[in-house]
Write a structure and sequence with these properties.
The complex is a heterodimer of chains A (195) and B (334).
Chain A (H helix, E strand, L loop, with lengths): L1 H13 L52 H4 L2 H13 L3 H4 L21 H10 L14 H14 L44
Chain B lengths: L1 H12 L10 H42 L9 H37 L8 E7 L2 E6 L8 E4 L1 E5 L4 E7 L4 E4 L7 E3 L5 E5 L5 E7 L11 E7 L1 H12 L8 H12 L29 E2 L4 E2 L2 H9 L1 H4 L12 H12 L3
Parallel strand pairs in B: 1-5, 4-10
Antiparallel strand pairs in B: 1-2, 2-3, 5-8, 6-7, 6-9, 9-10, 11-12
The chains are: A mainly alpha (195), B alpha+beta (334).
Chain lengths: 195, 334
């Protein structure tokens, strides 16, 4: 019986797969992803609130484009690195928000769906969010999306980051309780007409 | 013959030897190394000789005594063996203590090789490249470069060592021993080169996938040439000359390059990747991975992950025209 148990345990190891890191298959991008929906928003009073229509991002045949990134701890940690590198902290701080809205809470002005977050990064949003489409590779945008979503606990716990390399200003991503997204529909306050 | 020649050129290209010293620090370390080498060689020869003698004598005696009674030790002989063993233990302790003393003295003499008012370089390790800043009290005279440092011949140079991610270690065998770059713990190293030349340094602490491609090139120049180099590095980037280079500058500034790289004198001010203000004056690309030629540069820009998998630079798909323009622009950044 003992032998059998040991054998089972050893065999169970064969089921483990190493997380794959494939830096070579980073999709190069010099333009905005094709089919990405253009926002109808304009700066200034002529703006109209974004429609709630489903996104028209062209999906790869094998599944959702964000799936490989949201299941890989490495991709999420790359997202965390890029979050610093591309100065997301400049406006959103370490998730607590500043000039830009906080990212670690349960409020999602433009939706918590990965495709919506992707769209926010690619096209930018009114009131200051710059467009990164055509500047950085699509894979890096998806890594950022995965990391942003991990900040409010929307990703599985095993891929979320356990600690920061620098001084800790908030609980680690892994320690965040999954927050049920609010404000999924309706007019984003930042897109309302002034007045 | 061809293979032999190629092997020779390879060893010349990658020659890094702590015994071919080029400065006082390395000389002292090499002297210590030779002391250890010769003392240990002599002891090794003596031990092997004693072993061979014992085997030979023991064999002769066993033939002689095989018919006689079992070997017995009288107390006088036993005491003699004890004395010999005790003597050898004392001798071993004395030799080890002498080694300790020699090491300590070498360390002290290395620590005394400093000066004041010389060149100070702030060297920061990243995965997997080096950022070098030549400090100066006047901020506009500070020089930032990457992966290649120049030092004046015959003058002690202070290198302050920092790391921004993991533990790295700087080792330029011809100039000094290893010194670790530890995140959050500044370290320092004095080096001095007594003859002009190129000395290759290497990261000597395993720091990840591309640890082997983390080379630092140290070029020792005569003082006047060093000053000329430093003055040239202080100048902001050369403006693009022709229309192609102007287009290249536009590609650099509006594309993804400027998000990470800086070129002094332009709007590009990314601080997370090597400074490219004088990229064309450097001998290698990607921390000594490739020689700095237009072909290698083009390959590196388009697909860095093929050359150095895991490096932070993403692939860039540029149109052929844009790529050529970018190369023309970067070629002009002397």
């Amino acid at each position: 019986m003992k032998v059998l148990t040991c054998l089972m345990l050893v065999l169970a190891l064969a089921g483990c797969t190493r997380e794959r890191r494939k830096p070579t298959d980073v999709a190069p991008s010099s333009a905005r992803p094709e089919g990405s929906p253009e926002s109808a928003l304009q700066p200034g009073p002529t703006g109209t609130p974004p429609s709630a229509e489903p996104s028209a991002v062209a999906l790869p045949a094998e599944g959702m484009p964000h799936a490989p990134y949201e299941q890989s701890a490495w991709a999420v940690s790359e997202g965390k690195r890029l979050y610093q590198w591309y100065n997301c902290v400049g406006c959103h701080a370490n998730g607590g928000g500043g000039m830009g809205p906080p990212l670690m809470d349960d409020k999602w002005i433009y939706g918590s769906d990965p495709i919506k977050v992707h769209q926010s990064i690619v096209d930018g949003r009114p009131n200051g969010m710059p467009a990164f489409g055509g500047k950085i590779p699509d894979s890096q945008i998806w890594q950022l999306v995965a990391y942003v979503r991990s900040m409010s606990g929307l990703l599985p716990k095993d891929v979320r980051q356990t600690r920061s390399d620098h001084m800790s200003v908030r609980p680690s991503e892994q320690a965040m309780r999954p927050a049920k997204p609010k404000n999924e529909a309706g007019t984003p306050p930042s897109a309302e007409r002034p007045g | 013959m061809n293979l032999l020649e190629r092997l020779q050129s390879l060893t010349e290209r990658f020659a890094q030897s702590a015994l071919e010293t080029a400065g006082p620090q390395a000389e002292r370390i090499a002297a210590l190394w030779w002391l250890f080498f010769w003392v240990c060689t002599i002891i090794f020869v003596l031990v092997v000789a004693a072993l061979v003698f014992a085997l030979y004598r023991g064999r002769a005696r066993s033939v002689e005594e095989s018919s006689g009674p079992a070997v017995t030790l009288d107390s006088g002989r036993e005491a003699g063996i004890h004395r010999k063993i005790f003597g050898l233990i004392v001798l071993t302790a004395i030799i080890l203590f002498a080694f300790l003393l020699a090491t300590e003295m070498t360390g002290r003499s290395l620590a005394s090789l400093t000066s004041s008012g010389g060149v100070t370089i702030e060297l920061t390790g990243y995965r997997w490249w080096w950022r070098a800043r030549y400090l100066d009290p006047a901020p506009e005279r500070i020089v930032v470069t990457a992966n290649e440092i120049h030092i004046p011949v015959g003058k002690p140079v202070l290198i302050n060592l920092y790391s921004r991610d993991v533990i790295h270690s700087l080792w330029v065998p011809e100039l000094h021993g290893k010194r670790d770059l530890i995140p959050g713990h500044p370290n320092a190293l004095w080096i001095q080169a007594d003859r002009p030349g190129r000395y290759d340094g290497q990261c000597a602490e395993f720091c990840g996938q591309q640890h082997a491609h983390m080379r630092l090139i140290v070029i020792a120049d005569p003082p006047d040439r060093f000053d000329a180099w430093l003055d040239a590095q202080r100048v902001t980037a050369q403006a693009p000359g022709d229309d192609t280079a102007k287009r290249g500058m536009e590609v650099f500034l509006t594309g993804s390059c400027a998000l990470c790289h800086a070129i002094q004198g332009t709007d590009a001010n990314g601080q997370v990747a090597p400074d490219l203000t004088h990229i064309a004056s450097r001998a290698t690309l990607a921390a000594g991975t490739l020689p700095n030629t237009p072909g290698h540069l083009a390959g590196w820009i388009v697909d860095p992950q093929h050359v150095k998998p895991g490096a932070a630079m993403p692939p860039n798909s540029l149109s052929a025209e844009d790529l050529q323009a970018l190369l023309a622009y970067l070629k002009g950044l002397r």
